[in-house]
Specification:
Layout (H helix, E strand, L loop, with lengths): L2 H22 L3 H21 L3 H26 L14 H21 L11 H12 L5 H22 L7
Helix pairs in contact: 1-2, 2-3
Length: about 170
Amino acid sequence: MSAQQIVFLVTAGVIVISAALVVTVRNLIHASLWLVITLFAVAAIYVQLEADFLAVVQVILYIGAISILIIFSVMLTRRVMADTGPQRIPQWPLAAVLALLVFGGLAYLLVQVPWPLAPNVDVSDTVLALGEAFVDPNRYVIPFEVATVLLLVALVGSISLALPERESD
C-alpha cells in the first residue's frame, strides 16, 4: 500500500467519523464544528485529486461562509429555543437498519454498473477564463456589487439582532 493510499484512507476515515458525529451529537455548536472538520477533510481529498481550485472553493465557501453562517444562526436562535428535554428517537434502530439497506443497495449498484471512462480534458484555461470573467469591468460588475451589498446588509442585520436590547431611560 502506497503512502498516497494511506493518506486517502485516513482522510476518508476522518470524513466518515466526523460526518457521523455531525448527525449524532446533541450540541448544535459541536455538530457544526464536526461539520467544519468534515468539510476540511473533503478539501483534503480535493487536494489529493489535484483539484486545487475545488479545494480552495471548498475552504472559502463551505468552511468560511456556510459553517460560520450555521454557527451564527445557532448562536442567534439559542435564546429563542426552549429546552424541550432529551430528544431521543425511539425508532433509531429501524432507521439505522433502513439506512444500511439503502447504502448496501447503492453500493451494489455502484459496483454492477459499467462506468465509461471520461476523456482527459485540460481545465487550466477554464479556471483562467472564469477568473477573468469575474474581474472584467464589462461583464459581471453589477451582480458582484449587488452580492456585496446584500452580504453587508446581512452582516449588519445579524449584528443588530445579536446585540442585547438596551433599556431606554
